[in-house]
Amino acid sequence: MNTEQRVITPFETSVCAALSIIGVALAAQAPERRQAMESTVKQLIEALPADRSIIGGKSAHHIALEALIQNIFPERNR
What we know:
By secondary structure, the protein is mainly α.
């Protein structure tokens, strides 16, 4: 098993950025719709491997989806 951690790639960075922008747009939805979206995204995160391959212990499979959730709920980031 390779335990070496890597830096996020430019492609992964752009996917995170794109999903962050989508999250900002979705933040305008009613709270109950945002909660439903969050639930769906969290189910997807649970289904994907948690490899902790990115420096800082993040999973390459989760970072973009976590960025989406973070921006759907901007009030949590204050």
